[in-house]
Amino acid sequence: MEEFVQQLTNGLAVGSIYALIALGYTMVYGVLKLINFAHGDLFTLGAYLGLTLLTSFSLQDKMGPLAAVGLLAIMVMGLVALIGALLDRVAYKPLRDSPRLSAVVSALGASIFLQNTVMLIYGARFRVYPQDILPRTVIDFFGMPIPLMRILILLVSLAMMVALYTFIQKTRIGTAIRAAAIDQGAARLMGINVDRVILIVFMVGPALGGAAGLMVGLYYGQINFTMGWVYGLKAFTAAILGGIGNIPGAMLGGLLLGVMEALGAAYISIAWKDAIAFMVLILILIVRPKGILGERVAEKI
Amino acid sequence: MRLEIKDLHVKYGNVGVLHGVNLTVEEGEIVTILGANGAGKSTTLMSISGLVKPSSGKIIFGGEDITKLKSHKIVERGVAQSPEGRRVFGTLTVDENLLLGGFTNFDANHKAKTREWIYHLFPILKERATQLAGTLSGGEQQMLAIARALMARPKILLLDEPSLGLAPILVKTIFETIREINETGVTVVLVEQNARAALKLAHRGYVLEVGKIVLEDSAETLLANPKVQNAYLGGG
Ligand SMILES: Nc1ncnc2c1ncn2[C@@H]1O[C@H](COP(=O)(O)OP(=O)(O)OP(=O)(O)O)[C@@H](O)[C@H]1O
Ligand SMILES: [Mg+2]
Fold this sequence. Notes:
The complex is a heterodimer of chains A (301) and B (236).
Chain A: H1 2-32, H2 39-57, H3 59-63, H4 65-92, H5 100-122, E1 127-128, E2 138-141, E3 144-147, H6 148-170, H7 172-182, H8 184-189, H9 194-220, E4 222-223, H10 227-242, H11 247-267, H12 273-287
Antiparallel strand pairs in A: 1-4, 2-3
Helix pairs in contact in A: 1-6, 1-7, 1-9, 1-10, 1-11, 2-4, 2-5, 2-9, 2-10, 4-9, 6-7, 6-9, 7-9, 10-11, 10-12, 11-12
Chain B: E1 3-12, E2 15-25, E3 30-35, H1 41-49, E4 56-61, E5 64-65, H2 71-76, E6 79-82, H3 94-101, H4 108-121, H5 123-127, H6 138-150, E7 156-160, H7 168-183, E8 187-191, H8 195-201, E9 204-209, E10 212-218, H9 219-224, H10 226-232
Parallel strand pairs in B: 3-8, 3-9, 6-7, 7-8
Antiparallel strand pairs in B: 1-2, 1-4, 4-5, 9-10
């Protein structure tokens, strides 16, 4: 039982990180029908920018751990959002009217570019987050020791998802984003500035991805310039699992994938951990390509 | 405000679709554009709304050249369209569709009044407010598409085949509503397959054939024109 609860909570924490990244894929896909392959690298950037900001300003000495991490999160999200907007400007916007394949190639190119930029700046070796930022407290959960960090990650991610969901469902801009995802032409006839909608999507998604990168840094303590590849692919799987283009789907897909992976690693074999995600991807593409909550049939990319 | 289209040429890729369309709509008029399938009627409306950019020619609204304006700026100038095939946002509620129609309208008071007016024109939409637009019947969706365009409080309303696929009784209702809208001072450009009904409603009409205006006259004269009768009124 304890093993199960440990794996379940761990799976949920990791899954909530997948979910945050998956939201970026799904939002861009929703509006542009484009897989932003560079999204995983924006997540990596979030992790590295977090490290740089944390160490260069010694935030935790100045304001205590929680305020420091809060401020850090805001800065990282803001910066990655700007980079996301820039990425759209440079890599995608000029190709808006071109065949879809051009944008896909551009996305792959942008991914390689970002990954190598991170490597050139920070080096190819693992970098380590300072260990003393957040207390490594373990709390007692019905007699089972659960790391506080794990719970914090889950709660903070869930809070962000609720905030995003509210934004998309309840605000004027959120409704415009949904409209643009359904029918861009009709949205433009309503007087919606679709370019602005796309810009917002390319800021909100990366902000969440950047936050996820920061959390991975804080949680695992180690980051590497290729981390965006594995996390990106898993989050992409999560987005497909939930139904790409569907926002609650990305959240559900992320959490589900995290739990499946954690339980699979515990009860089947740890060696299977990464393979599980890809088996899920292949299975879902064969059995139900539109995903759990997807309404549209997934189009070929 | 008067709408003028001057020598409009539009291409899709390198296929020319409009070859020098000239058309004027005076303030307060209902003008209909008739033409066979593929003549370029929808393309003309989409050019006015800025979703299709012409290769040459000018579109002038209220003295301002709007040819190169972005589509949302054109809506802000008071040009709204209910497009062919309705294109309501099916997975959004009726209420959300109307909200989006008023996207460029920031005056809350004004919006509330517009909504009242719309519920007066189309009472059924009030009943259906929280329903998903995709679950409405064809006629209700058409009403929603027109209502949504009206939410922008347009000076000129572009209607692309509002009677498409509707039962005759509904067509009558819709056309009566168009007249009512026009009587409040909204200029109307009406593209129709149902030429007879359109000419009965309109003040003037244009006939578009393969991308060119071939005929332009008052609605009564067009109704009486044997060429129009043969081609568009089923032999009269
Ligand atoms: N997006 C597009 N890309 C390429 N060709 C197009 C496009 N839209 C329309 N066309 C072509 O342009 C021509 C004019 O089309 P348009 O839709 O303007 O005609 P229409 O008069 O509205 O016809 P209908 O009565 O069928 O609605 C047609 O030959 C059509 O096939
Ligand atoms: Mg048409």
